Please model this.
Amino acid sequence: DVKVTQSSRYLVKRTGEKVFLECVQDMDHENMFWYRQDPGLGLRLIYFSYDVKMKEKGDIPEGYSVSREKKERFSLILESASTNQTSMYLCASSLGPPDPPSEQYFGPGTRLTVT
Amino acid sequence: DAKTTQPNSMESNEEEPVHLPCNHSTISGTDYIHWYRQLPSQGPEYVIHGLTSNVNNRMASLAIAEDRKSSTLILHRATLRDAAVYYCILEDGGSQGNLIFGKGTKLSVKP
Model:
């Protein structure tokens, strides 16, 4: 079974702190994704990566950056955390070329609270 | 991106079939139809996907209308563990694989 793990289930940080959210997948997937999920807004894509050292902006990249130095690891970075970044963060991975589309496997999520 | 419309919520009885509808009237010829579900306190989970033909797997069936403007996810015998939010998503076959989640249908299953 594919496993996508995230470094923390719950995290509390202060405004202005630099925050790292780590995601690791164990199935040699090419694509990795970071989403945030907020009540009433559903899941929104922040960034994704389809290869090592490659990244693409999603729908809401402002205030975030990402790093993918190794194929299995995709990190989301909040350079200076703000209260409006309090959210559930979900990482996902998928096998590769989207034709035919490959299913995304999600991690359990990290609930981040910024105070 | 083509959008989908789903009911906000549905109820079902345990061990009965459930039909979850999705409208996607602006679907294009290259859009795949995906279904995911999210159980409470978990990340979303892939259920099924299709392009034109009906699809079956161990979790569910996907019935796609002939004009592809709507589809129905069928759970053949609902269990309490099927209570979740179900998302119907269109994905452009030429895209990088990123999915756009809507608000989904919250399915409640009564014993």
